[in-house]
Amino acid sequence: MADVEPSRKVSSDAILSEYENQNVSMLKLVKTLLSTTTMPHVVMIVVASIVLYFLASLNNFTVFSSVAFTSLAVAYAITALLSDNKAIKQLITLDENPSKSDQSVIKSTVNKFRICLFPLGVAVGVFFVINTLTGENGIMPGTSEMIPTALGMLFVLWSIIQGSSFSRWASSSSARNFQRASKTSGLKLSILTTVLATIVFGLFLSTIFYQLNDFDRTIVESLSASIPFLILVVIVTGASLAYSRRLKILASMKPSLQHFSSKFSIICHLFITWHLLTIWRQNFLNPSSFQVFLEEIVLMIFTVLFAIWSMTSKSYKSNFRLITEHNALTWGLSFGYAYAGSVAMLTSFFDDIKTVMLIGHCLVVITVLFLHKIILSKIIDTDDYGIEIRRITDSQNEAISENQAEKLSENQQHETLSADNDADVWQEDDDVDWEAEDTGPEIDGVEWDETIDID
């Protein structure tokens, strides 16, 4: 039995170490994506997405916009696959140390966008192929009308990817410095901290959105209006923690697991609170199309970051790495165009956009809720056996101690009673005359002499 617990302990710590030592940090990834050598690509996706978004709102250009988004997404995916080629890399990347020139600032800035020409050229080729296949005179005539629907429905897939990639990032972030944990904070304190964190975060965001929805409201009125939403947050958070209660109990018995479990739960439930607020706003507030687009763009950025991070770290120990630090940007742009295209189709093509978006955000919440427990189980259940043995042993030792205390108490009571009885018996001899002479035995009618002579 003694050898079981150390082996299980190594397993959980090994998994935490693996989560902690992921290949690419989020900060490093952001720096890579925002590098000045590739900044024109980032500027172009912002401009192109806005233009195509508004074109999608026009009935005559909805299909055109969807095909354009699809072409750009495919083009940057192809560029990412070819980015290891030296010639391609020079075409899509600016020099880190550019030589000084006499060009004006405007001309120099425009000249930097030459690195976008290669993916744009590939996008034009893909656009031509799609039109050739799905156009009125193509191999599959009329199918181009289905592209906006298909692109819009990708929002559901993006929702699942968003939830799974975020959960993976959250687990890695939560595992950092787990070795420094020396004592557990307690199960009740951990749960209370998680619930309070979601309440404060939810109250802050919901108050802001209630203010944006009606500027005539006072802050106090917005805070009051947020109370029903906070009740929903507490119910969902409480149900989630109850769903993983056994794992939380086991984690509270070991400092490193408690450190991971507490931090991981807080991060996941804050993310869930954000999506719950989006669902709440769609039902009880009336956000403008611009607000919806802006919020989805923010979610798109997070989704792209988490997706790239997840795919990069997942292939860390593999010889075949689909996404690396060198092609992370081009893959991110590919994901970005696909995600932006989904949002544009939802906001302009579908009549019931609210239902589709609600499904997407609900899927994110459900994905994170399930992965929250699955990841906890993956790490904590490795110590399940050892911790159970420790808990059983502690319970048995406690029971033995209680029995010994009860027996000791009973013995003390018995000795006390025995002492009292002995005292009572001793007191019964108080009427004995110890000073009287010994007269010997007496028999009726017989007198005994003091001495008897024997001849």
Cα end-to-end separation: 89 Å
Number of helices: 17
Rounded mean pLDDT score: 76
Please tell me how large the radius of gyration is.
39 Å
Structural class: mainly alpha
Topology as H/E string? HHHHHHHHHHHHHHHHH
Number of domains: 1
Total beta-strand segments:
0
Helix content: over 70%
How many strands, what sense, and barrel or not for the largest sheet?
none
Low-confidence stretches: 1-10, 315-319
The proportion of residues in beta strands is under 5%
Quick one: overall form? globular
Question: What does this 3D model show about the protein?
Answer:
The chain is mainly alpha-helical. The protein has one domain. Helix content is 73%, strand content 0%. It contains 17 helices and no strands. It is globular, with a radius of gyration of 39 Å.
